[in-house]
Specification:
This protein is of the alpha+beta class and about 325 residues long. It has six helices and eight strands; from the N terminus they run E-E-H-E-E-H-H-E-E-E-H-E-H-H. It comes from Diplodia seriata.
Length: about 325
């Protein structure tokens, strides 16, 4: 079994007014990744927050596994041979809503990362908290809501560090196909170990989007604008001079911002296929030996992490 049937990937620029993920109590529709209207068509008041350009990465594919198996694998995906950069995972909140039949979970992941040389050329290591070799660590906050009865799960993950340099928000939606959902309203008994449904042709559709936004250029422009205003007042400069200097400085900081976002986009394009392969390994272990095989695989992967061995060169 291949593990996925089809995949489509796109990356482009989109307009967005906010990148903050919803809280753990947010309803499923709050996780929508639809494109907001452009500024000219926005229904917001004139004094609303100005739209900023962000980098967007989209992908969609299907796992050849049932929805219950995929959602369980999601919570058991760390560690795996494709995620040896994940050092730890902690559940900081989990609750079940009996009214909506939804499980809400908040987890905190600690990941090791090796910063690209291009970033180190733009920004100092001291700003990024990186070692001389470019190694650093970062916390990732993950919110998830799963509804087994209706057959969907929505997740949002966001970095908690370096947000002033680059904010990365990943949204995923897992869905049981509508035709399978209709034919399985009265589900049969689970397969061995109670983890996989007996249907041989069940699939789970997944849509992933990654939003990247760098504020480094905005912060630099603000500092330069304040410094230019102070210099202009002190030296009583002519009105035209600050405007001319500001144009070139604005161009340079915008270039820095775009460069950081482009680097982040390339890393997202590289890491997403590895994340999918890691999930497939967990699902294969589950199919072959149930929860026992999954836990044994996690133990072996954890030992490799402690020994500093990486089967897959993935530190994104």
């Amino acid at each position: 079994m291949s593990g996925d049937r089809h995949q489509s990937v796109t990356s482009h620029w989109k307009a967005s007014a906010s990148l903050l993920p919803p809280g753990p109590r947010a309803p499923s529709h709050a996780f929508s990744t639809s494109t907001p209207p452009p500024p000219s068509q926005s229904t917001q008041p004139e004094n609303a927050k100005t739209f900023t350009m962000v980098k967007f990465y989209d992908s969609s594919f299907s796992y050849d596994y049932s929805f219950p198996a995929v959602t369980l694998a999601y919570f058991l995906r760390y560690p795996n041979p494709y995620s040896t950069h994940v050092l730890s995972t902690d559940v900081i909140d989990r609750r079940f809503d009996p009214d909506t039949q939804e499980l809400h979970t908040v987890r905190l992941h600690l990941k090791r990362s090796k910063l690209p040389g291009a970033v180190l050329k733009i920004l100092p290591r001291s700003l990024l908290g990186a070692s001389t070799a470019g190694d650093t660590q970062a916390y990732i906050l993950e919110h998830s809501v799963v509804n087994i009865r209706e057959g969907w799960m929505d997740t949002v993950s966001q970095n908690l560090e370096w947000t002033g340099v680059l904010s990365v928000v990943e949204r995923q939606t897992f869905r049981r196909p509508a035709d399978i959902f209709r034919t399985n309203r009265c589900e049969k008994s689970a397969a061995a170990h109670g983890l996989l449904e007996s249907g041989l042709n069940e699939t789970t559709d997944v849509e992933t989007s990654v939003t990247l936004h760098s504020k480094i250029g905005e912060n630099i422009r603000k500092r330069r604008a304040a410094r230019a205003a102070a210099d202009a007042k002190a030296a009583e400069l002519e009105e035209e001079q600050p405007a001319k200097v500001g144009f070139f400085k604005s161009w340079s900081t915008a270039s820095i911002q775009r460069s950081i976002e482009l680097i982040g986009l390339k890393r997202a394009e590289k890491s997403q296929p590895n994340a999918k392969e890691g999930m497939k390994i967990v699902l294969q272990r589950m199919r072959q030996g149930g929860l026992v095989a999954v836990m044994e695989g996690m133990r072996q992967d954890r030992e490799k992490i402690l020994m500093g061995r990486n089967d897959v060169n993935d530190r994104s």
